Amino acid sequence: MSALIAPSILTADFGRLAEQVREAEAGGCDLWHMDVMDGHFVPPLSFGREVIAAVRAASDGRFIEAHLMVAKPAEQFADIAGAGAQRLIFHYEAVGSVEAAREHIAAARALQCQAGIAINPETPVTAIAPLLADLDEVTVMLIRPGWGGQAMRPDLLTKVSELAARIQAEGISLAIEVDGGVKAHNAHSCTAAGATILVAGSAVFNAQQTPQDALAELRAALG
Ligand code: DX5
Ligand code: ZN
Known about the structure:
By secondary structure, the chain is of the alpha/beta class. It has a single domain (about 5-220), classed as Alpha-Beta Barrel (TIM Barrel), CATH 3.20.20.70. Helices cover about 35% and strands about 20% of the residues. Strands 1-8-7-6-5-4-3-2 form an 8-stranded parallel beta sheet. It starts with a strand and ends with a helix. The structure holds D-xylitol-5-phosphate and zinc ion. D-xylitol-5-phosphate binds near residues 67, 145, 147, 181 and 201.
C-alpha cells in the first residue's frame, strides 16, 4: 500500500540545509516533518521558526508539518505557522485533556493551519478517540520522542491498526502518521497496519546514502 513520505531534517547536515532540502525533494519526498523540541517536554532542544522558515525558502513549495514536542504548544503556534508550517501537531500529553486538545485544534485552525495530535508510546488510542472527527491527522510515536535514530518498537503498530479500524468504522477521513525508526525494512509493516504518512529521519539523512537513493529505497519497499 502506498503512503506519503515525510522526511525529518533532525539528522540532516545543517551546514548545507538548503541543499539537503533540494536533494530530498529531487528524490520525491512528499512533505516535510519539522521536529520542534523545547528542552522541557523532551530533554533536547532542536529548532524553531528560523529553521522552518529556511526549509520553507529552500523548498519548491511542499507541504510542511510541525511536530511540536513542547510543553506549551499553543504559545508556539503563531510563530511556527508564520514561518510556513501548514499543519500544527501537538502532543496530547502536553495539553493533558480532551477539552484542552479541542482548544488547541481551534487555535491551529484560527491560524489557517491543519490540526494534528501526537501520542507517546504509553498513551492509548482511547485517550484521543473523542477527538478523531475534529482532527486532520494523528501521529503515533513508535519511539520515545526526543531523538532521531532510535529503533522502532513494532509492538506499537497495534495502535495504528486500532486507529485505522476506528476511523473506518466511524467514517472519518484522517491521516495516520507513524514517527520513529521507520526504515526500508519495516516501512511495509507500517502501511500494512494502516499508516498513511511515514516520517523518515535517519532513513533519509544518514552518512551511507544520498537522500535521493534513500528515498528511492523507501519507495521501493512500499511497492
Ligand atoms: C523524534 C522525532 C522524529 C525523528 C525521527 O522525537 O519526532 O520525527 O526525527 O527520526 P528517525 O526516523 O531517525 O527515527
Ligand atoms: Zn517527529
